[in-house]
Design brief:
Blueprint (H helix, E strand, L loop, with lengths): L1 H35 L7 H5 L8 H14 L10 H8 L6 H11 L6 H14 L9
Length: about 130
Amino acid sequence: MKAVLVFLCAIATTLAQNLLLVEEQKLHHIHDACQANPATNADHHLLHDLSANLDNPVVGAHMLCESKGVGLQKKNGQLDIETIRNKISLTITDTSRVDHLVKECAIPKKSPEKTAIHLFMCLDRNGVTYFHEF
């Protein structure tokens, strides 16, 4: 019985790692697509120093593009709470922590762009770093 449990845990861990890898690859493709569009292309230096570029409209447009692309925000810019919860759950297994992060990070701001920036920075600050590291 122990051997079966260990085997099932190993399979679950492998599946979770593969799912995270797929999500990371998906985000890279979304990032590349946002960069390929002149309206959402942003210099990498601006993106890697996001906290210093919060009010840069190009950075906001890029982050909103990525957020919509990965499904964190809907086409109209509203947050998709269920998708956010699911994405956080890819790296955080404690459901109470996931709930806490959703409440802390999924907060509408003055604009969809500011909402996207806040969301990504908050997730990164709280250890959900597969999206971006700023």
